[in-house]
Design a protein that fits this description.
By secondary structure, this protein is of the alpha+beta class. It has a domain of 30 residues. 67% of the residues lie in helices and 19% in strands. It has a 3-stranded antiparallel β-sheet. The chain is rod-shaped and about 90 Å long.
């Protein structure tokens, strides 16, 4: 005689007066379809996380380039003013 009792987070299987208790995750992990689904879901999360990190790196690089260009423009303006203010020029 086999009796299966399912609670929200536990599954109890009673076989010949022997109680076997599973967590829901343990019970679901026995099914290879669910295991495959979880692996695909994990891979999708990792890909999304990697894409966000790459986007952050690209944004940081673009910001660094803009700041460098601004610095170079300021230096050019300062050198130009110094050159124009020279008496011997």
């Amino acid at each position: 005689m086999i009796i299966c009792i399912v609670f929200p987070f536990k599954i109890w299987i009673i076989i010949e007066k022997i109680f076997i208790s599973f967590d829901l995750d343990q019970a679901l992990s026995l099914d290879p379809r669910i295991l495959k689904f979880k692996q695909e879901e994990k891979a999708a999360r990792e890909a999304k996380k990697k894409e966000k990190e790459e986007a952050a790196k690209r944004a940081e690089e673009a910001t660094r380039k803009v700041l460098l260009i601004r610095l170079l423009v300021r230096k050019y303006i300062v050198y130009k003013l110094i050159y124009k203010s020279c008496i011997w020029c």
